[in-house]
Design a protein that fits this description.
single chain; 517 residues; mainly beta; Immunoglobulin-like; six-stranded mixed β-sheet; five-stranded antiparallel β-sheet; 36 strands
C-alpha cells in the first residue's frame, strides 16, 4: 500500500476478476481547495456501503481518520472537509457528508497546530475497506483575491446565471441601477472565506455586539419577530438565562444607553416606527436582566421585527452565550431564545474579522445589520456573494462593503472592497402596438427591469358600443436589451376596440393602464 502514495490511482482500481468484491475509489483523484475553504472529496463505493478515509499531510504532522457510510446506496459519498479550524470551534462539523442520507464520522485526528487553518501543501488521501484501498491527493493552496463586481439581476436568478445581468467591474466610480424589486448581486472574489461562512452569521443572532472583544464597551442589537401581533407593555432581555455570563455592569443600564428602538416593518434592517418616547421605566438586576416598560401599548404586528440598539460592556467571556428576550403584552407574550457571540468568532457581521455592511447614501447604517442581505459562498467562483432584494428599499444610493480586519486569521486576505448601486422606481414605456383590421395585437415595451424579469402585460379591450369586453394577459420576459414583446388574439379586429395596456410585476402595477397609441 505504501507504493500507492507515490502516484495517483484511478477510481475502482481492482482487477476485473475481483469486481464482485468490495471496491472503492475517488471521483477525482486530485482535489484542490483554497486554504480556509471547504474541500469536497468525492468517494465511490461498489458492493459496500462503508469505507475508511485517511487524510495525511506530507510531513505527517496532520492526520485524520474518518468512517464513511453510504446511507442511500447510490455508490457515492461526498465528504466535505473544512480546512478552517477556528480558534474556539469544536470538532463537530469539520467533516460532514454533503447528502443528509450519508454519514461521515471522525474517528481520530492529530492535534491541530496553533493556526486556525490547515497548512497549505499536499495531503495524501487513502480510501479503503478491509479488502482494498486507493490513494488520492488533496492540495491546499493559498487563497487569492481578484476583486469584486455588482450586477442587477431578476429575482430567483441562479448564481451561475448572474453574469447575464448588467454589471460593474471592481470598484469603478459608476453605479449599477436597479429597479425596485430587482435583486442586486455583489460578488467579492476573495478565497479562503468558505470555512468561516459555514457557521451561522453573528449578525443573525438574537443579540449582536458590534465589537465582540471581551470587556469592551460596544453596541448590542436585539432583533426578534413575533409570530402573531402583540400589544407590548414591557420588554425583558435576560443575559443570565441558562447560567449564561451576563455583562458585569448590566445593572447600570439606563435610558441614555438606548441608541435606537422601534419596529422594522419591511425587513430591510431600518427602523420604520420609533417607539423611544414610549419607554417609561427601566429595571435592571445583577442577574443579567433588563426590563423596559412602556407608558402605552406598543403594537408589533405579526412577522414585523422589533429592534433595539444600546450601549453595553461585553463580559469577559469567549464563545456563544445564551440569551432570552420576552415581550409581554396584555393578552399574549412573545418569547425568544438565542445566543450572543463573544470573542474572535463573533467579530464582524460574518465572524472572525469578516465584516459585510450595507449602507445607504451618507453612511446611514441599518439597525439590523445584513437584514436585507442574503449571503452565499460560491466555491466555484471562489468568493462571497451578497444578494439584496430591493423590493422594500427606498430609492437612492447604497453601498455594499466587505472589510477583513487584522482580527481575522492570518490565512485570510486583508481587503477592503466596496460596490455601489442605485435603487430607482420601475419604468416602462410602451413603444408600439399593431392595431389594425387583424385580430392579432402585438404590444412591445422598454423597461429598466433587470433582464430575465417576469412581468404580466394585460390588455383590456372594450367595444365603444359596449358589446364586447375582453381582458387578456401575457406573461413576458425582459430581454437583455430591456424590451418586452407580447402577442394577443382578440375576438374581432383590433380596430373595433378601445384598448388599454398595463404591466405588472409580483401583483403590483408598474405601468398603465394606458392607451398604447
Amino acid at each position: 500500500m505504501l507504493v500507492g502514495l507515490a502516484g495517483i490511482a484511478a477510481p475502482f482500481a481492482a482487477p476485473a476478476a475481483a469486481q464482485s468484491g468490495p471496491a472503492v475509489g475517488f471521483g477525482d483523484a486530485q482535489t484542490t481547495v483554497a486554504q480556509g475553504d471547504v474541500a469536497t472529496i468525492d468517494l465511490q463505493l461498489r458492493n459496500t456501503d462503508q469505507a475508511t478515509l485517511r487524510i495525511r499531510s506530507a510531513d505527517q504532522k496532520y492526520q485524520a481518520t474518518l468512517r464513511v457510510r453510504d446511507g442511500d446506496n447510490d455508490g457515492m459519498i461526498r465528504v466535505r472537509a473544512n480546512t478552517f479550524r477556528g480558534i474556539d470551534r469544536s470538532d463537530a462539523g469539520q467533516f460532514t457528508a454533503q447528502s443528509d442520507a450519508d454519514e461521515v464520522r471522525l474517528i481520530a485526528e492529530s492535534k491541530v497546530t496553533e493556526a486556525s487553518v490547515l497548512d497549505t501543501g499536499r495531503y495524501n488521501l487513502i480510501v479503503s475497506t478491509a479488502e482494498t484501498s486507493v490513494a488520492g491527493v488533496l492540495t491546499i493552496s493559498e487563497p487569492v483575491v481578484t476583486g469584486s463586481d455588482v450586477r442587477a439581476v431578476a429575482p430567483n436568478t441562479p448564481l451561475a446565471a448572474a453574469a447575464n445581468g448588467s454589471s460593474n467591474e471592481s470598484n469603478r466610480d459608476e453605479d449599477i441601477t436597479a429597479a425596485r424589486g430587482d435583486h442586486v448581486r455583489t460578488r467579492f472574489a476573495v478565497g479562503g472565506l468558505g470555512g468561516i461562512l459555514e457557521a451561522p452569521t453573528p449578525a443573525a443572532n438574537l443579540v449582536y455586539p458590534d465589537d465582540s472583544a471581551p470587556g469592551v464597551l460596544t453596541t448590542h442589537t436585539v432583533q426578534t419577530s413575533p409570530n402573531k401581533s402583540i400589544s407590548a407593555r414591557s420588554l425583558t432581555i435576560d443575559y443570565g438565562v441558562d447560567d449564561g455570563t451576563p455583562p458585569k455592569d448590566v445593572y447600570h443600564f439606563s435610558q441614555s444607553d438606548i441608541e435606537s428602538i422601534g419596529i422594522d416593518e419591511t425587513g430591510d434592517g431600518y427602523i420604520d416606527r420609533s417607539i423611544g418616547v414610549a419607554v417609561q421605566n427601566i429595571q435592571t438586576g445583577t442577574d443579567g436582566r433588563i426590563t423596559l416598560s412602556f407608558d402605552r401599548p406598543v403594537t408589533i404586528p405579526e412577522n414585523h421585527t422589533f429592534r433595539l440598539a444600546y450601549a453595553m460592556e461585553n463580559p469577559e467571556a469567549i464563545g456563544s452565550q445564551p440569551v432570552a428576550v420576552r415581550i409581554h403584552g396584555r393578552q399574549a407574550t412573545h418569547r425568544d431564545r438565542g445566543t450572543v457571540l463573544y470573542g474572535p468568532a463573533g467579530q464582524g457581521t460574518l465572524g472572525y474579522g469578516v465584516d459585510l455592511q450595507l449602507t445607504a447614501a451618507g453612511g446611514d447604517t441599518p439597525t439590523g445589520s445584513l437584514s436585507g442581505v442574503e449571503t452565499t459562498y460560491d466555491a466555484d467562483a471562489g468568493g462571497l456573494v451578497a444578494t439584496i432584494d430591493t423590493s422594500t428599499f427606498e430609492t437612492g444610493e447604497y453601498q455594499v462593503t466587505l472589510d477583513i480586519s487584522e482580527t481575522a486569521p492570518d490565512s485570510v486576505p486583508r481587503v477592503s472592497l466596496h460596490e455601489s448601486f442605485t435603487v430607482v422606481e420601475p419604468d416602462v414605456t410602451f413603444t408600439s402596438n399593431s392595431a389594425s383590421d387583424d385580430t392579432r395585437l402585438s404590444v412591445t415595451a422598454d423597461t429598466n427591469l433587470a433582464p430575465g424579469s417576469s412581468v404580466i402585460v394585460r390588455v383590456s379591450a372594450d367595444q365603444p358600443t359596449g358589446g364586447i369586453s375582453q381582458v387578456l394577459n401575457c406573461v413576458g420576459t425582459v430581454e437583455p436589451d430591456g424590451s418586452v414583446d407580447c402577442e394577443f388574439d382578440l375576438s374581432k379586429s383590433t380596430s373595433d376596440f378601445d384598448i388599454d395596456v398595463s404591466m405588472q410585476r409580483d401583483g403590483v402595477i408598474i405601468a398603465g393602464p394606458t392607451d398604447p397609441n
